[in-house]
Amino acid sequence: MIRACRLPAEFETVLAIINDAAIAYRGVIPADRWHEPYMPADELRHEIAAGVAFAGYEEAGGLVGVMGAQPVDDVMLIRHAYVRTARRNRGIGGALLGHLLAGAERPVLIGTWAAARWAIVFYEKHGFTAVGDRTKDRLLRRYWNVPERQIATSVVLADRTWVERTGYVVPKDADA
Description:
Layout lengths: L1 E3 L6 H11 L19 H9 L3 E7 L2 E11 L2 E9 L8 H11 L5 E6 L3 H9 L3 E2 L2 H11 L4 H5 L1 E5 L1 H7 L10
Parallel strand pairs: 4-5
Antiparallel strand pairs: 1-2, 2-3, 3-4, 5-7, 6-7
């Protein structure tokens, strides 16, 4: 069952899911971007205060996956998509993404680590298109609040609505 996370009551559970699932990034993303825990509690509180609303996937009375949506200006950002390590590859992430997309009233953008190839493939499988580097840099600076190092090591994927509304043409090279 997919439902809104009950915050603040489920804060610690959401935090635990994020940090459990984020272990997949260790040794994959740049070493200077990895830290323990991957997301400290204060950072999660900041994200929630900034408008990230979490949906949760519940099984047997407990959350096993979470994914956030954050409206920013004229788009919706998908943020912090994580499924417990023991529950991966069972359709939970796809179900959460589908749930959030069904409620989207504006174009959707997703940012993730460029080295997290599995995440990029997942979003492409669900209809998202990776934008070129110049567009990615511009979008990350406009809609996210991340350091330059993260901008340099990330990718942005856009849904069909964003591509159609902006007239974006998928680049033939990675720089566009």
